[in-house]
Specification:
Structural class of chain A: alpha/beta
Order of helices and strands of chain A: HEHHEHEHEHEHEHEHEEHHEEE
Number of helices of chain B: 11
CATH topology of chain B: MetI-like fold
Number of domains of chain A: 2
Shape of chain B: globular
Largest interface: A-B, 39 and 45 residues
Distance between the termini of chain A: 84 Å
CATH topology of the largest domain in chain A: D-Maltodextrin-Binding Protein, domain 2
CATH architecture of the largest domain in chain A: 3-Layer(aba) Sandwich
Number of strands of chain B: 0
Distance between the termini of chain B: 52 Å
Largest sheet of chain A: 10 strands, mixed
CATH superfamily of the largest domain in chain A: Periplasmic binding protein-like II
Strand content of chain A: 15-25%
Shape of chain A: globular
Oligomer: heterodimer
Radius of gyration of chain B: 21 Å
Number of helices of chain A: 11
CATH architecture of chain B: Orthogonal Bundle
């Protein structure tokens, strides 16, 4: 046999050998049950390890396979808009409302809440910790020309950050404003390297605490509340989406069992997310007191 | 310094306890890269052979264009296929975005110019008498092509090996078209990117070592084939 033909044969053999076993464990295109469900979500739910705890019981029980595509909230919503995802788990209430109003999604349910925190070097050269509000803390950072690392990727955290800049009436720019364009974990690592300030969801910060030398400098302002919602992609807009699978996942995550898994999930001994789907069972530390 | 050293030591320790996820990523990487290399070779070798033999106006221009195509970055290929394969895109009905097939498609396009250009170079480097002799001895077109492929096997093999190396180590296409889905489209390279982003540097290094070892192993296999080809 000619060497080239032999190489091709070996490569073909390897291909079959490699793919055959992995095909068995990995999803076939349409397994029995609810099939494959494409969940577009934020890096915070994936990087923290929550989904690895939350999804396997669902997959076992419903004979489904969930493909997690972890991107920022902006891109997750874009994937839903284009029909490239069946369901989205995101955290940007205003963008979610626009998504629903435009008819891209249906059946939005609240899932859980955590909060954003302003992180920075413990020395706090901009004295952000002494500010009265989150917006004033950011204004202090900008006023001191301290380095600030922004997600810069239209994620939920980035949207919140821009809202805070707007509230502070500051237009961040210049060499001390770094638009990272990456996920939360990568942004925290960069902020740590550059001794920069940054806005983070508390979940990712707690999950990464051992790896970065950043301190919570400002927290607790109600504006920093960070609610997560799950939304099924509108099957009238995209008839080919796995709507039954999407709604089963919505049902699971907002069920008492799913909510219990979220509430029990800890990283480094700390609670990362507080479930909010089941009224009365909720433990939402940042919920404004009822009037 | 000591931190870097620490990460490497931890990585070596992790190598002893690599779990099923790592082997799955290796399997996906190898599977995607071999499938796309196979397709690229099936198209690129005949193309390169034809380009080396044929004479026509604009051949030099075509060759230059081919060489320019070798420099196309993976993110650009990823972007173009993303636009085509998205549900809203031209081929959205095929439901290929975030599947293994999408990765193979993109990687195939990545490897094709490289394989074609190297096969072209191998053909151009052949002694022209080989072709004339074959034809004089009454060989038809297919027979002549087979003779040329056999004569230039070193070069053609190198073209295929280079194509494999290019796709095996790429990350842009796998990330953009595969979506880095756990146990489905997560390759070694996208796993390294993810673990580094999560700050799991030691695990990233361990995966990098696995990648290097597998690449080295594949090249040894190719080299062996090459050697046995020499003897016949």
């Amino acid at each position: 046999m000619k060497p080239v033909a032999r190489v091709m044969l070996v490569v073909a053999g390897l291909w079959v050998a490699c793919l055959a076993p992995s095909c068995e464990e990995a999803p076939r295109p349409e397994p029995p049950g609810l099939g494959t469900i494409r969940l577009a979500t934020t890096t915070s739910t994936e990087n923290s390890g929550l989904l690895a705890r939350l999804l396997p019981p669902f997959e076992r029980r419903f004979g489904a396979k969930v493909h997690v595509i972890a991107v920022g909230t902006g891109r997750a919503l874009a994937l839903g808009r284009n029909g490239d995802a069946d369901v989205v788990l995101v955290h940007a209430p205003d963008a979610e409302k626009a998504f629903l109003d435009a008819g891209h999604g249906v059946n939005r349910r609240a899932v859980m809440v955590n909060d954003f925190v302003l992180l920075g070097p413990a020395a706090d050269p901009a004295r952000a910790a002494a500010a009265e509000s989150a917006a004033k803390a950011l204004a202090a950072v900008a006023g001191a020309r301290a380095t600030f690392a922004s997600r810069g990727d239209d994620s939920g955290t980035h949207k919140k950050e821009r809202a805070l800049w707007a509230a502070a009436a500051v237009q961040p720019a210049g060499a001390s404003y770094l638009e990272v364009g990456q996920g939360m974990g990568a942004t925290l690592l960069l902020a740590d390297e550059k001794r920069a300030y940054c806005l983070s969801d508390r979940g990712t910060y707690l999950a990464m605490r051992g790896k970065v030398d950043l301190t919570v400098l400002f927290e607790g302002d109600p504006i920093l509340r960070n609610p997560y919602s799950i939304i099924a992609v509108n099957p009238a807009r995209h008839p080919e989406v796995n709507y039954a699978g999407a709604m089963a996942l919505v049902g699971w995550i907002t069920s008492p069992q799913g909510q219990a898994i979220i509430g029990a999930f800890r990283a480094g001994g700390q609670v990362l997310f507080h479930p909010t789907a089941v009224p009365g069972a909720a433990s939402d530390p940042l919920r404004p007191d009822p009037p | 310094m000591s931190w870097t050293l620490d990460q490497f030591i931890q990585a070596l320790r992790l190598l002893g306890s690599l779990d099923a996820d790592v082997f799955r990523a290796v399997a996906v990487s190898l599977g995607m890269a071999s499938a796309s290399t196979l397709l690229a070779a099936a198209a690129g070798l005949p193309l390169g052979l034809g380009l080396g033999l044929a004479r026509f106006r604009g051949k030099r221009l075509l060759t230059t264009a081919l060489h320019a195509l070798m420099a196309v970055p993976t993110v650009l290929i990823g972007l173009v296929f993303y636009a085509v394969l998205s549900r809203q895109g031209l081929l959205g009905g095929w439901r290929l975005l975030y599947t293994r097939s999408a990765i193979v498609l993109g990687q195939c396009v990545l490897a094709l110019p490289l394989v074609t250009a190297l096969a072209h170079a191998a053909t151009a480097g052949l002694d022209p008498r080989v072709r004339r002799t074959a034809q004089t001895l009454g060989a038809g077109r297919w027979r002549t092509a087979r003779t040329l492929l056999s004569e230039g096997r070193r070069g053609y093999l190198a073209a295929v090996v280079a194509g494999f190396g290019r796709v095996f180590g790429e990350v842009g296409i796998s990330m953009m078209l595969g979506g880095n889905i756990h146990a489905y489209t997560r390759t070694i390279t996208t796993a390294i990117a993810l673990e580094t982003a999560k700050g799991e540097v030691a695990l990233g290094i361990a995966l990098g070592i696995v990648l290097m070892v597998v690449a080295l192993g594949m090249n040894l296999v190719f080299l062996r084939l090459h050697g046995s080809g020499e003897r016949t």
